[in-house]
Design goal:
This protein has eleven helices and 19 strands. It is an alpha/beta fold. Strands 1, 2, 11, 12, 13, 14, 15, 16, 17, 18 and 19 form an eleven-stranded mixed sheet that branches. Helix 3 links the parallel strand 4 and strand 5 (81-87). It is globular, with a radius of gyration of 22 Å. The structure holds pyridoxal-5'-phosphate. Residues 42, 64, 85, 173, 217-219, 235-239 line the site of pyridoxal-5'-phosphate (PLP).
């Protein structure tokens, strides 16, 4: 096989350090295994069927996606157990979902309102197999989701009566863990969220409604805290790559697997180093608050104390710290750890899997742009 070195690659391009990624995958798989729960990784972070297959080979029990378009691509690549952890709305998408349900061995979708239940039931009622649904429960992240307890019970009763649907269980995403100010607060959020889910599952069961799946998770919570008995499934996504934001939780950049390779294209002043990677190569993402807030717009992998402090569409730059002996030259290639892995992935057609200085494999990011 042709030997391609990382330094041979043109920039900006997306890299994943395979040793680090495999370590991250093993860590979470082991955690799920020890707790006796299913790991259903959220594929929105990598949008890459080849990586989903690695997760499944390592023991994952199906995958999660955020978008119908991601699910369609994953299904066409042979992945047959998919949970769309999101609400599907509108006739165009509902028709696509109906078709997908015929194709995928095990498909499920989220709901948080009776109007979702009615619309799904209408398209599924005449289908040969019922569609599994999970109720989206809001346990502290004010996004989608029904409040825990009685509102979930009411929605569950509606699903039980709806032709063409089967209630598989309940799910939540404790996204507020990103805004926690301390590690102890992350742990408290995780426990509170899981406890609300377990109490809600008990309420349903005591009302004779079976709950097969109690599905939880966000990467910060699962990096630093445990899984309570009674939880059946975890759905972390960002853990596969980690990023500069997650590194703030871990206190180290040593596990950040995703980088963008960029080239120094200008040295306009003694301290300023300008790269060929701007918002179109790294995104402009900055976490506003909390323990996952990393300064700037990405960090130098080999000198993570240095962050990109200016960014425009095609350029970013950093300043060499005063008194530092470091120097950078025009043409030099540098790896940048993005703040947030998921939207960065979506900027690239390919991910180069690297080991040491060598490109071992190149995967197409087949779900890139599949946001409908
Ligand atoms: C519904 C749902 N589940 C799971 C996840 C995975 O979270 P994380 O990327 O923190 O692991 C997300 C992330 O946005 C999500 O929205």
């Amino acid at each position: 096989m042709e030997r391609i070195l990382v330094s041979d690659l043109d920039t900006p391009c997306l890299l994943v350090n395979l040793d680090r990624m495999e370590r991250n995958l093993r860590f979470m798989q082991e955690k799920a295994h020890l707790a006796g729960v299913k790991l259903r990784p959220h594929a929105k972070t990598h949008r890459t069927p080849a990586i989903a297959r690695i997760q499944l080979e390592m023991g994952a029990g199906g995958i999660t996606v955020a978008k119908l378009g991601e699910a369609e691509v994953m299904a066409s690549e042979g992945i047959d157990d998919i949970f769309i952890a999101n609400e599907i709305v509108g006739p165009i998408k509902l028709e696509r979902l109906r078709r997908l349900a015929r194709q995928v061995r095990r498909l499920a979708v989220g709901v948080d309102h009776t109007s979702h239940v009615q619309a799904l039931s209408r398209i599924m009622a005449e289908e040969p197999r019922p569609l599994d649904v999970l109720i989206d429960v809001e346990t502290g992240d004010p996004r989608t989701g029904v409040h825990p307890g009685k509102p979930v019970l009411e929605l569950a009763r509606g699903i039980e009566k709806a032709p063409g649907l089967r209630l598989r269980g309940i799910y939540t995403h404790d996204g507020q863990s990103y805004d926690a100010s301390t590690l102890d607060e992350v742990r408290e959020i995780n426990r509170q969220s899981q406890t609300l889910m377990l109490e809600t599952a008990d309420l349903l069961r005591s009302s004779k409604i079976p709950v097969e799946e109690v599905s939880v998770g966000s990467t910060p919570s699962l990096l630093v805290d445990g899984i309570l008995p009674g939880i059946t499934e975890i759905r972390p996504g960002t853990y596969v790559f980690l990023d500069a934001d997650q590194a703030q939780v871990l206190g180290t950049y040593a596990f950040c697997a995703q980088t963008v390779l960029a080239t120094v294209i200008s040295r306009p002043t003694p301290e300023r180093v300008v790269l060929d990677a701007g918002t179109k190569a790294l995104t402009y993402y900055v976490q506003d608050t909390g323990i996952t807030r990393s300064a700037g717009h990405g960090r130098l992998k080999d000198h993570p104390e240095i962050f990109l402090n200016r960014m425009s569409d095609e350029h970013s730059s950093f300043d060499i710290p005063p008194g530092s002996a470091l120097d950078f030259f025009i043409g030099q290639k540098l790896e940048i750890i993005p703040n947030h892995a998921c939207p960065t992935t979506n900027l690239y057609d390919f991910i180069h899997g690297i080991r040491q200085d060598r490109v071992e494999i190149t995967w197409p990011v087949l779900c890139r742009g599949k946001s409908q």
